[in-house]
Amino acid sequence: MAAWTWRFEKADGTQVEPAVTPEDFTTQGDAESWIGENWKDLVEGGADQVRLLEDGTEIYGPMSLHAEEA
Q1: Are 42 and 10 in contact (CB under 8 A)?
Q2: Contact present, 6 and 37 (Cβ < 8 Å)
Q3: Which domain of life is it from (predicted)?
Q4: Eight-state DSSP code of residue 16
Q5: In this predicted model, what pLDDT tens digit does every residue of 32-53 receive, in sequence order?
Q6: Strand partners, 58
């Protein structure tokens, strides 16, 4: 079974420890739902962007955690 995980980074790509402890997710949808619920806390904890991994292989990213200015 695939394990979906997030990599948390500063804007320059340096990996950082997340402010909210993630889990290994069994589906991409579960992983994306979790990031949608926790992105604000992650930004406050120092993460600027994330990358989604499936079994260690990057699926997409970097994806900014900062809301776009209107």
Answers
A1: no
A2: no
A3: Bacteria
A4: -
A5: 999 999 999 999 999 999 999 9
A6: 53
